[in-house]
Structure prediction request, 225 residues.
Amino acid sequence: MAVDWARRAGGEERMDRADLDAEELRDALGFLRFLNRWLLGARASIGALRPLLAGRDALTLLDAGTGGGEVAAAMARFAARRGLRLRPLGLDLHPLTVRSGEPFPRVRADARRLPFPDRSVDVVHASLFLHHLSDAGAVQALREMARVARVGLVVNDLRRGRRAYAWAWLLTRFRHPGVRHDALLSVLRGFTRAEVLGLAARAGLAPVDYVPRFGHRFALSWTRS
Prediction:
Protein backbone atom coordinates (compact mmCIF):
# COMPACT_ATOMS: atom_id res chain seq x y z
CA MET A 1 0.00 0.00 0.00
CA ALA A 2 1.49 3.33 -1.10
CA VAL A 3 1.00 6.04 1.50
CA ASP A 4 1.57 9.76 1.06
CA TRP A 5 2.67 10.60 4.60
CA ALA A 6 2.76 14.32 3.78
CA ARG A 7 -1.03 14.47 3.44
CA ARG A 8 -3.99 13.48 5.62
CA ALA A 9 -5.97 10.66 4.04
CA GLY A 10 -9.60 10.92 3.07
CA GLY A 11 -12.18 8.16 3.28
CA GLU A 12 -14.88 7.13 5.72
CA GLU A 13 -14.37 4.96 8.77
CA ARG A 14 -16.90 2.15 9.07
CA MET A 15 -17.91 3.15 12.59
CA ASP A 16 -19.14 6.50 11.24
CA ARG A 17 -21.80 4.83 9.10
CA ALA A 18 -25.34 5.22 10.45
CA ASP A 19 -26.23 1.74 9.13
CA LEU A 20 -23.33 0.01 10.87
CA ASP A 21 -24.23 -3.36 12.37
CA ALA A 22 -24.61 -3.16 16.17
CA GLU A 23 -22.20 -6.06 16.71
CA GLU A 24 -19.51 -4.41 14.61
CA LEU A 25 -20.00 -1.15 16.52
CA ARG A 26 -19.52 -3.05 19.80
CA ASP A 27 -16.27 -4.49 18.44
CA ALA A 28 -15.09 -1.01 17.44
CA LEU A 29 -15.98 0.52 20.81
CA GLY A 30 -14.35 -2.42 22.59
CA PHE A 31 -11.10 -1.80 20.73
CA LEU A 32 -11.22 1.87 21.68
CA ARG A 33 -11.75 0.91 25.34
CA PHE A 34 -8.65 -1.28 25.10
CA LEU A 35 -6.60 1.59 23.66
CA ASN A 36 -7.84 4.09 26.20
CA ARG A 37 -7.29 1.84 29.21
CA TRP A 38 -4.30 -0.37 28.49
CA LEU A 39 -2.40 1.91 26.10
CA LEU A 40 -3.03 4.95 28.31
CA GLY A 41 -5.13 6.86 25.80
CA ALA A 42 -7.21 8.42 28.58
CA ARG A 43 -4.02 9.73 30.21
CA ALA A 44 -3.53 12.15 27.33
CA SER A 45 -6.86 13.84 28.09
CA ILE A 46 -6.34 13.75 31.86
CA GLY A 47 -2.93 15.39 31.56
CA ALA A 48 -4.38 18.25 29.52
CA LEU A 49 -7.33 18.59 31.90
CA ARG A 50 -5.20 19.18 35.02
CA PRO A 51 -4.57 22.93 34.51
CA LEU A 52 -8.27 23.54 33.84
CA LEU A 53 -9.21 22.12 37.26
CA ALA A 54 -7.16 24.63 39.23
CA GLY A 55 -9.22 26.69 41.68
CA ARG A 56 -12.48 24.88 40.97
CA ASP A 57 -14.60 22.42 42.92
CA ALA A 58 -17.13 21.42 40.21
CA LEU A 59 -17.14 21.42 36.42
CA THR A 60 -19.36 20.30 33.58
CA LEU A 61 -17.68 18.41 30.72
CA LEU A 62 -19.12 18.10 27.22
CA ASP A 63 -17.54 15.03 25.58
CA ALA A 64 -17.85 15.50 21.80
CA GLY A 65 -17.76 12.28 19.79
CA THR A 66 -18.11 10.41 23.07
CA GLY A 67 -18.18 6.87 21.65
CA GLY A 68 -18.23 4.50 24.63
CA GLY A 69 -17.59 7.42 26.98
CA GLU A 70 -14.73 5.73 28.84
CA VAL A 71 -12.35 8.68 28.51
CA ALA A 72 -14.85 11.15 29.97
CA ALA A 73 -15.59 8.67 32.77
CA ALA A 74 -11.85 8.35 33.50
CA MET A 75 -11.57 12.15 33.64
CA ALA A 76 -14.46 12.27 36.12
CA ARG A 77 -12.78 9.63 38.32
CA PHE A 78 -9.51 11.55 38.19
CA ALA A 79 -11.28 14.73 39.33
CA ALA A 80 -13.12 12.85 42.10
CA ARG A 81 -9.83 11.57 43.53
CA ARG A 82 -8.88 15.22 43.95
CA GLY A 83 -12.11 16.12 45.69
CA LEU A 84 -13.65 17.73 42.60
CA ARG A 85 -16.93 16.99 40.88
CA LEU A 86 -16.81 16.66 37.11
CA ARG A 87 -20.15 15.94 35.42
CA PRO A 88 -19.88 14.57 31.87
CA LEU A 89 -22.42 15.00 29.10
CA GLY A 90 -21.78 12.85 26.05
CA LEU A 91 -22.46 14.01 22.50
CA ASP A 92 -22.37 11.78 19.44
CA LEU A 93 -23.99 11.73 16.02
CA HIS A 94 -24.21 7.95 15.69
CA PRO A 95 -27.71 6.70 16.64
CA LEU A 96 -26.40 3.54 18.35
CA THR A 97 -23.51 5.14 20.21
CA VAL A 98 -25.71 7.61 22.07
CA ARG A 99 -27.49 4.63 23.64
CA SER A 100 -24.41 2.67 24.76
CA GLY A 101 -21.33 2.95 26.93
CA GLU A 102 -20.68 4.70 30.22
CA PRO A 103 -23.80 5.68 32.19
CA PHE A 104 -23.94 9.45 31.93
CA PRO A 105 -26.38 11.65 29.98
CA ARG A 106 -25.96 11.79 26.20
CA VAL A 107 -27.38 13.80 23.36
CA ARG A 108 -27.37 13.03 19.65
CA ALA A 109 -26.00 16.02 17.76
CA ASP A 110 -23.31 17.17 15.32
CA ALA A 111 -20.20 18.66 16.95
CA ARG A 112 -19.92 21.07 14.04
CA ARG A 113 -23.26 22.61 15.09
CA LEU A 114 -23.47 22.23 18.85
CA PRO A 115 -27.00 22.73 20.21
CA PHE A 116 -25.84 24.72 23.26
CA PRO A 117 -25.61 28.45 24.08
CA ASP A 118 -22.30 30.29 24.27
CA ARG A 119 -20.19 29.41 27.34
CA SER A 120 -22.81 26.98 28.60
CA VAL A 121 -20.42 24.22 29.76
CA ASP A 122 -17.10 24.48 31.55
CA VAL A 123 -14.85 22.20 29.48
CA VAL A 124 -15.37 20.67 26.04
CA HIS A 125 -13.39 17.52 25.30
CA ALA A 126 -12.85 15.30 22.26
CA SER A 127 -10.84 12.06 22.19
CA LEU A 128 -10.02 10.35 18.87
CA PHE A 129 -12.78 12.36 17.24
CA LEU A 130 -11.23 15.25 15.34
CA HIS A 131 -9.50 12.99 12.78
CA HIS A 132 -12.92 11.72 11.63
CA LEU A 133 -13.58 15.16 10.12
CA SER A 134 -12.25 16.95 7.06
CA ASP A 135 -9.97 19.92 7.72
CA ALA A 136 -12.89 22.30 7.19
CA GLY A 137 -15.08 20.20 9.48
CA ALA A 138 -12.38 20.08 12.15
CA VAL A 139 -12.04 23.87 12.09
CA GLN A 140 -15.81 24.24 12.38
CA ALA A 141 -15.94 21.77 15.30
CA LEU A 142 -13.09 23.53 17.13
CA ARG A 143 -14.85 26.87 16.74
CA GLU A 144 -18.05 25.39 18.14
CA MET A 145 -16.23 23.70 21.01
CA ALA A 146 -14.57 26.99 21.94
CA ARG A 147 -17.87 28.86 21.61
CA VAL A 148 -19.68 26.76 24.21
CA ALA A 149 -16.70 26.38 26.58
CA ARG A 150 -16.60 28.61 29.63
CA VAL A 151 -13.15 27.47 30.82
CA GLY A 152 -11.44 25.75 27.91
CA LEU A 153 -11.18 22.72 25.69
CA VAL A 154 -9.09 19.55 25.41
CA VAL A 155 -8.46 17.53 22.23
CA ASN A 156 -6.76 14.13 22.33
CA ASP A 157 -5.99 12.57 18.95
CA LEU A 158 -3.52 10.66 16.78
CA ARG A 159 -0.13 11.68 15.44
CA ARG A 160 0.20 10.40 11.89
CA GLY A 161 3.33 8.42 11.12
CA ARG A 162 4.84 5.12 10.01
CA ARG A 163 5.38 3.83 13.54
CA ALA A 164 1.79 4.59 14.51
CA TYR A 165 0.62 2.74 11.40
CA ALA A 166 2.80 -0.27 12.22
CA TRP A 167 1.41 -0.40 15.78
CA ALA A 168 -2.16 -0.16 14.47
CA TRP A 169 -1.42 -3.04 12.08
CA LEU A 170 -0.02 -5.22 14.87
CA LEU A 171 -2.76 -4.43 17.40
CA THR A 172 -5.55 -5.24 14.94
CA ARG A 173 -3.98 -8.30 13.33
CA PHE A 174 -6.57 -10.65 14.83
CA ARG A 175 -9.42 -8.16 15.21
CA HIS A 176 -12.63 -7.82 13.21
CA PRO A 177 -11.84 -6.64 9.63
CA GLY A 178 -13.90 -3.49 10.24
CA VAL A 179 -11.85 -2.63 13.32
CA ARG A 180 -8.65 -3.21 11.36
CA HIS A 181 -9.85 -0.99 8.50
CA ASP A 182 -10.79 1.85 10.86
CA ALA A 183 -7.61 1.63 12.95
CA LEU A 184 -5.34 1.89 9.93
CA LEU A 185 -7.41 4.64 8.33
CA SER A 186 -7.50 6.54 11.64
CA VAL A 187 -3.70 6.77 11.62
CA LEU A 188 -3.71 7.98 8.02
CA ARG A 189 -6.30 10.60 8.95
CA GLY A 190 -4.28 11.67 12.01
CA PHE A 191 -2.32 14.91 12.28
CA THR A 192 1.17 16.26 12.27
CA ARG A 193 1.91 18.93 14.86
CA ALA A 194 1.91 21.65 12.19
CA GLU A 195 -1.42 20.48 10.78
CA VAL A 196 -3.39 20.49 14.03
CA LEU A 197 -1.85 23.78 15.16
CA GLY A 198 -2.83 25.24 11.81
CA LEU A 199 -6.40 24.04 12.24
CA ALA A 200 -6.53 25.53 15.74
CA ALA A 201 -5.26 28.85 14.39
CA ARG A 202 -7.92 28.85 11.66
CA ALA A 203 -10.52 28.24 14.38
CA GLY A 204 -9.30 31.33 16.24
CA LEU A 205 -7.74 29.43 19.14
CA ALA A 206 -4.62 31.15 20.43
CA PRO A 207 -2.56 30.40 22.29
CA VAL A 208 -2.88 26.62 22.48
CA ASP A 209 -0.79 24.03 24.28
CA TYR A 210 0.37 21.00 22.27
CA VAL A 211 1.95 18.01 24.04
CA PRO A 212 2.98 14.71 22.36
CA ARG A 213 1.68 11.75 24.36
CA PHE A 214 2.32 8.02 24.63
CA GLY A 215 0.67 5.81 22.03
CA HIS A 216 1.31 8.16 19.10
CA ARG A 217 -1.17 10.68 20.44
CA PHE A 218 -1.12 14.36 21.23
CA ALA A 219 -3.09 16.53 23.63
CA LEU A 220 -4.13 19.99 22.50
CA SER A 221 -5.60 22.37 25.07
CA TRP A 222 -6.93 25.90 25.05
CA THR A 223 -7.94 28.04 27.99
CA ARG A 224 -10.28 30.98 27.67
CA SER A 225 -8.51 34.16 28.77
Summary: The radius of gyration is 16 Å. The mean pLDDT is 95. The helical segments are 22-38, 41-53, 70-81, 135-148, 162-171, 177-188, 193-202. The chain is about 40% helix and 20% strand.
